[in-house]
Amino acid sequence: xxxxxxxxxxxxxxxxxxxxxxxxxxxxxxxxxxxxxxxxxxxxxxxxxxxxxxxxxxxxxxxxxxxxxxxxxxxxxxxxxxxxxxxxxxxxxxxxxxxxxxxxxxxxxxxxxxxxxxxxxxxxxxxxxxxxxxxxxxxxxxxxxxxxxxxxxxxxxxxxxxxxxxxxxxxxxxxxxxxxxxxxxxxxxxxxxxxxxxxxxxxxxxxxxxxxxxxxxxxxxxxxxxxxxxxxxxxxxxxxxxxxxxxxxxxxxxxxxxxxxxxxxxxxxxxxxxxxxxxxxxxxxxxxxxxxxxxxxxxxxxxxxxxxxxxxxxxxxxxxxxxxxxxxxxxxxxxxxxxxxxxxxxxxxxxxxxxxxxxxxxxxxxxxxxxxxxxxxxxxxxxxxxxxxxxxxxxxxxxxxxxxxxxxxxxxxxxxxxxxxxxxxxxxxxxxxxxxxxxxxxxxxxxxxxxxxxxxxxxxxxxxxxxxxxxxxxxxxxxxxxxxxxxxxxxxxxxxxxxxxxxxxxxxxxxxxxxxxxxxxxxxxxxxxxxxxxxxxxxxxxxxxxxxxxxxxxxxxxxxxxxxxxxxxxxxxxxxxxxxxxxxxxxxxxxxxxxxxxxxxxxxxxxxxxxxxxxxxxxxxxxxxxxxxxxxxxxxxxxxxxxxxxxxxxxxxxxxxxxxxxxxxxxxxxxxxxxxxxxxxxxxxxxxxxxxxxxxxxxxxxxxxxxxxxxxxxxxxxxxxxxxxxxxxxxxxxxxxxxxxxxxxxxxxxxxxxxxxxxxxxxxxxxxxxxxxxxxxxxxxxxxxxxxxxxxxxxxxxxxxxxxxxxxxxxxxxxxxxxxxxxxxxxxxxxxxxxxxxxxxxxxxxxxxxxxxxxxxxxxxxxxxxxxxxxxxxxxxxxxxxxx
Length: 884
Ligand code: ADP
Ligand code: MG
Prior knowledge:
Layout: H1 8-14, H2 25-35, H3 48-54, H4 59-73, H5 77-111, E1 115-120, E2 123-128, E3 137-141, E4 149-161, H6 163-166, E5 172-173, E6 192-193, E7 198-210, H7 216-220, H8 233-262, H9 267-281, H10 286-303, E8 306-308, H11 312-317, E9 322-326, E10 337-343, E11 346-350, E12 361-363, E13 366-367, H12 375-384, E14 389-393, E15 396-400, H13 403-414, H14 421-424, E16 426-434, E17 439-445, E18 451-457, H15 459-462, E19 466-470, E20 475-477, H16 480-495, E21 499-508, E22 523-532, H17 539-548, E23 552-556, H18 561-570, E24 579-582, H19 583-588, H20 591-597, E25 601-605, H21 609-621, E26 626-630, H22 636-641, E27 644-648, H23 654-659, E28 662-664, H24 669-709, H25 718-737, H26 762-787, H27 792-813, H28 829-847, H29 852-855, H30 862-882
Parallel strand pairs: 9-23, 9-26, 19-22, 23-25, 24-25, 26-27, 27-28
Antiparallel strand pairs: 1-2, 1-3, 3-7, 4-5, 4-6, 4-7, 8-28, 10-11, 10-22, 11-12, 12-13, 14-15, 16-17, 17-18, 18-21, 19-20, 21-22
The chain binds adenosine-5'-diphosphate and magnesium ion (MG).
């Protein structure tokens, strides 16, 4: 027997569940234990050992290990072991960095894992899809992915797209009745919903009959295991840069070695020094640090409620120059309250706030009663043509479902209406709401089997479909005059920033087919609702900050043009000469015409999701980097086409989330601003540590090169070079990755996505500081060597300390694009900690007797330190004054 052949009741019995209660928590956890989680493949882990070994596969490291081995064989045990240990420690650090990056990426994936709406213990809960078990009752709406294989027991115009399973991209209409035929193909099982397929329209409820690998999708899952690691453009750019740097470093090292040999240094000594220098100077760890910086930034974003789905978005965020944002729910609270009702040609005012069901109706300050003509009809229709419900949690009312629907329910309750209504009237057909149609209808049958249709939707959509309107006591033909009256009312409400909804109805004779779209015509307009949805408090200042940061904010909404304009003005989003465009105007515009006005347009009203794509393209055409938000199914194409697709964590559908690169966990516009700010900061931090690492490396190479050119002894020995690379490069560079943003980071204009890493003076800064670091180190070496010609170790210790100190001072310079004096050096506590620990390690290496022979160091006096500190401060302080 197949599931699709069984009646819903039989399925319930077989799976020991009732559709109106769902499983109990205990049942669910038992089943999860028995059948496992609802996931497709057991994830395969790369072995930790492999990741560890990978740290040593670098060519230069291998050469270094070989050279060390030779040194060991030649009897230089101390050097050999010291180098080995340093290489090992380096490997560990690389390993931990990679693990950290890996783990945070893993965590990210979990956070953005899909959720399912299930009935457990008689109440609807949102749980992670992986926790769904056989027997669960699940509810799906348009835009959701079906979390498991289900037998559908209720369908409201539910359609699904199953091309992943069948190759057929046309939507399939689903229903709930059993099918008697046997041996049906997947596409003919129209009362089944399959895991991973998409609900494109309507909604439905189903009983889970298969999870995990026991689903149709599970059977073909092995075909689609693609877990390729994504590389971001920046990582790619850096990999390219890395290759160039390797060539340059190798060339310079060979130069150093060649010169050394010509100047009479022993071949073997120069070889080991050269290899160590190459290892130190090649920034092989750069891509890993970048990944760590990116993923740490991603975690900071999560704390600010922005969930990055694609690492590359972090970079693009910093380039955003236009944000196209939905109004409803993103700029506003999505807390709708009916404030006004237009009925019989008069305005009623409704008191009460939020979703509290206490409130009254007033006409000219007089309270009106339930008997007020048509009021009860209008509110009860609003209640019937409705998919939301009020739930009480801790004494507070919340809306389960669309807040617009919720507001109408609350208004009906204020008049004292109850759910009893649903018993008198039976809903036999629903045409669901979507942003294209901008309306929703139900066909209702009353106790006498009389049928009628209720339509609720945007008034300017309903008005052309109406032939009559309801006056105080009778139905009247809709003529020019009262049409103008109603239009006036719509405009007046919208001007007050109210969202407008109209209610219409018509009777239907019992022999008319209910499938016809023509039903929503020749309506009798009953009245209008005016709903208030206050702007979110943080949005106004977020829009202002974006403006200062050179980012334009554009509002996009399906609402009435006047509502949109009123809210845009309230948020100071619309400048005095800014344009407002409507969907019907967009329809008539060619791409070129739109392109002419797009820079001056700030609000798009009464648009459908298709318009969004046109808007994104027009902005991109102008060279903008566009961030676009969306929540519904139809928003996915525009989100995909934009540079930064943003979806809603709370109200968003699975499709839009999958298409997006950023999810707002709180649906809040202000979160986009925070994410952009963080995106800019991360990029700046990456620039900071690239600057620090490369300037350090330039200094290291140059001091050796200069010494060889001048025919001097080696200023640094191999172990010292490797130590510098390990200690000064490691921790301080990481700490720069955690630096706070400079104050003016949101006062600069967006970064050009095509700009190179070294632009805006970074290349000059690296070279100039690097050269100076090399020079002061060499000066320290020469001065000490000339005063103590027979104590080379002393001179080397001085050079070693000067180099380390110069880098540790320079690291503070790297925090600012302006000047080292522009920032408080103690602000970044990680950096202070990193510098102090590097400093302590330096002292240990210099003063601790057991280490002295290993690092070829001697104890230094206070006078020596005065020289060292004086010299090492020069590169940073000097440039601090020139501000270049
Ligand atoms: P947005 O989300 O940008 O505010 P929508 O497409 O949701 O735009 O809504 C457009 C219009 O459709 C609204 O102005 C309102 O008149 C109408 N509308 C919104 N929600 C509903 C609903 N649940 N039922 C009927 N009509 C609705
Ligand atoms: Mg909406």
